[in-house]
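Priority: medium. Attachment 1 of 2:
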């Protein structure tokens, strides 16, 4: 939720100017070059409305990516958080060909999960959904939140501040990635979280977020966008609520991982060849960490 959006469309000259403003950071890491495609830069320009503002935010994102290395998070490192089906990226898309992320609080979650584990799982999901959206050509994703269980003291979930951090991370570093968000069954306690983050949301982003409390409202909010066979019964769909398949998610995430890391390795090979041609020390090219090398 909270992926910044704005009304200004980026022109080619602005893209070149924005790229030049952050070229010093891009030159430091081939993974940042892969991230900063023209389409990516256009999203930052659209979200911020000017080259100066887009450059400021993009520099922060590039510095964050350089330090946090979201591109290096591998599915095997976060699978424990996915076992119960709390957060699920679907293999199928909505009616506008956008990836769908389901977040169901009623689904089980691993007890003892740390804030950092939650964050890495969330970021890996955003990276995967972004890769899927780019391959399809939609650029944006759909988020469906089922908040049933939010008020139940037995529900295992991140701390309040962790939840705020998850939203802020998506907002700050994944601009123009949100196509639609539907929050289903928001309880009274949920609105404290909403009041904490909503002042920081762009008005266009807010316009993409809707709330549905009753069965008919949920159906009315989701039916125009998502086929019933992709949704669980509790969200007005035809899938039994207990039909979550980790294997389906596992296959999808491994496939997306393979594509993401292949793209990074190709970029690193190009950098190494360019360094060799320029007479530089090829060993200075930065290899992928062993933890993310593709078998």
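Attachment 2 of 2:
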């Amino acid at each position: 939720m909270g992926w910044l959006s704005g009304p200004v469309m980026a022109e080619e000259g602005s893209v070149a100017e924005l790229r030049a403003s952050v070229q010093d950071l891009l030159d430091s890491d081939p993974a940042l070059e892969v991230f900063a495609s023209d389409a990516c830069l256009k999203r930052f320009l659209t979200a911020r409305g000017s080259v100066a503002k887009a450059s400021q935010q993009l520099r922060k994102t590039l510095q964050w990516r350089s330090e946090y290395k979201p591109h290096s998070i591998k599915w095997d490192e976060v699978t424990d958080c996915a076992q119960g089906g709390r957060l699920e990226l679907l293999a199928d898309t909505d009616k506008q060909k956008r990836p769908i992320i389901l977040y169901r609080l009623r689904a089980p979650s691993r007890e003892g999960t740390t804030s950092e584990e939650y964050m890495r799982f969330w970021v890996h999901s955003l990276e995967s959904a972004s890769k899927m959206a780019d391959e399809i050509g939609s650029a944006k994703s759909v988020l469906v939140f089922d908040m049933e269980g939010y008020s139940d003291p037995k529900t295992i979930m991140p701390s309040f501040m962790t939840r705020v951090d998850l939203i802020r991370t998506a907002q700050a570093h994944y601009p123009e990635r949100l196509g639609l968000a539907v929050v289903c069954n928001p309880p009274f306690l949920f609105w404290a979280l909403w009041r904490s983050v909503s002042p920081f949301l762009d008005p266009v982003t807010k316009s993409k977020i809707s709330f549905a409390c009753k069965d008919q409202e949920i159906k009315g909010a989701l039916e125009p966008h998502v086929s019933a066979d992709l949704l669980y019964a509790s969200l007005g769909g035809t899938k039994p609520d207990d039909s979550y398949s980790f294997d389906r998610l596992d296959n999808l995430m491994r496939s997306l991982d393979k594509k993401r890391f292949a793209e990074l390795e190709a970029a690193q090979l190009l950098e190494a060849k360019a360094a060799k041609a320029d007479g530089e020390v090829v060993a200075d090219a930065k290899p992928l960490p062993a933890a993310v090398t593709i078998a």
